[in-house]
Design brief:
Layout (H helix, E strand, L loop, with lengths): L28 E6 L10 H8 L3 E5 L6 H4 L6 E5 L6 E2 L12 E7 L2 H10 L1 H4 L3 E3 L21 H12 L9 H15 L1 H8 L5
Parallel strand pairs: 1-2, 1-5, 3-5, 3-6, 4-6
Length: 202
């Protein structure tokens, strides 16, 4: 028998995260394009970002028929948060064109699935790209990062917004993320966690 599920955060009602999810406004608009394989993932951080940001929208799919409309909301300039040779480093307090805030387009999935979204949606691949400064460390202690600086979707969005909209803090978005990780560690048991994910250098 399946456990009752919260219809908002999609977690079991006994582990509902809604009380921890903030309601934050931002000048930057965030468009999350989620690969369908991520929807049932225990750590669905794109959904947490969508629930916690007032100026965000989450779409699920592989091909987005209305992408041209989604990428051109009035009053915004679109940027794809994805690495690339010509990607602009997000390192200033404001987008380059100060008259228009950014529409930050964020593909959500494994690196392979995210690249597939770009391949299947050529309009995405044509967007100017933005990338985060190097050196970030993920708080996701339950999965080995594919490389240095690899962040969850939620962590990447928080870092981008804190740069673009400094000094505003978007750290409250990470509270349900942290609680989710702690809950998974607790369910796993301290010994199992330490054996599989603990610091091997000690």
């Amino acid at each position: 028998m399946s456990r009752a599920q919260c219809s908002r955060c999609l977690r079991p009602q006994t582990h509902c995260l809604c009380a921890l999810i903030p309601q934050l406004d931002s000048r930057t608009r965030v468009l999350l394009l989620q690969h369908p394989s991520e929807v049932g993932h225990a750590l669905n951080t794109a959904r947490l970002a969508d629930l916690g940001l007032l100026n965000a929208e989450l779409r699920v799919g592989e091909v987005f028929e209305d992408l041209a409309t989604l990428l051109n909301p009035p009053g915004y300039q679109a940027r794809l948060l994805f690495p690339g040779e010509d990607a602009q480093l997000i390192d200033t307090g404001e987008p380059s064109d100060e008259s228009l805030p950014w529409l930050l387009v964020v593909p959500d999935g494994t690196w392979r699935k995210a690249r597939k979204l770009l391949h299947l949606n050529p309009l995405l691949a044509q967007l100017p790209r933005a990338t985060l400064p190097e050196g970030a460390v993920s708080r996701y202690r339950l999965r080995k990062a594919p490389g240095p600086g690899a962040l969850s979707t939620l962590e990447a969005i928080v870092q981008a917004l804190e740069i673009l909209e400094a000094p505003t803090s978007f750290a409250p978005l990470l509270r349900p993320f942290e609680a989710l990780i702690e809950g998974q560690i607790e369910a796993m048991g301290a010994d199992t966690y330490q054996r599989n994910h603990g610091d091997k250098t000690v």
